[in-house]
Amino acid sequence: MSLIDFILHIDDHLITIVNQFGGWSYLILFAIIFIETGLVVFPFLPGDSLIFAASAMAANPKYGLNIWLVYLIVAFAAIIGDSINYEIGAWSTRAGEKHSWFNKLINQNNRLAAEKFFERHGPITIVIGRFIPFIRTFAPFISGGSKMHYGKFITYNILGGLLWTGLFTIIGFFFGNIPFVKDHFSMIVIAIILVSVVPIAIVAIKKKISLKKEFH
Fold this sequence. Notes:
Blueprint: H1 3-8, H2 10-21, H3 25-38, H4 47-58, H5 67-95, H6 100-104, H7 108-121, H8 125-128, H9 135-145, H10 150-175, H11 179-183, H12 185-214
Helix pairs in contact: 2-4, 3-4, 3-5, 4-5, 4-10, 5-9, 5-10, 7-9
C-alpha cells in the first residue's frame, strides 16, 4: 500500500483499521495526527482528510466511534504534537552544527516556504498554518527555533489546534455521509489538499514577482 493510495482512499483504509482494532483505533488516530504535527520530518501525512474520514464514520453508528472522543483525541494530539515540534525547533537551534545530520532529514524547500509565510504573517501563522499542509508541520518548528516565548506559542497552538480539528470534525460529521461525498471521496480529498496549498502558491508567486522586479 503506497502513501498516495492511503491518502486518496483513507476512508476505506480507516474502515479496515476500525474493524480490525476497534477501540484501539483512537490511539492510531492520535498517533497519525501527533506524528504529522509533532515530527518535522513527516509533513506529508494526511491530517485533514483523516479527521474528516474519522468524523464521517463517527456519524454512522455501525462503526462505533464517538464523535466527541474523536474530536478530543485529534485535538489533544495536534496540540501536544505542536508543543513537541516547538521543542525540537528550539533544540535544533541550540545544538547547531553538532547535529547537522538532523537538517539533512528536513525538506529545506518546505522549511523555507514556512519561514517566508511566518515572516509575512507573524505568530498568527501558528493558527493559520494549521489549515495548510507542510506549513502546519514547520510553523511550530520555526517558532521554537526563533525562540518565541513559549507562553505566546502555546496560546496560538491551543487556539489553532482546537479550530483546525474542530472544523474538519464538524464538516466530516455532517457532510461525510452524503452519498455524493462518499462516492467521490478521492476527489474530495484532492480538493481539500488543493485548497489547503493555495496560500503557499500565492506566497511563491508573489516572491517570484518581487524577484523579477528587483532585476528590472
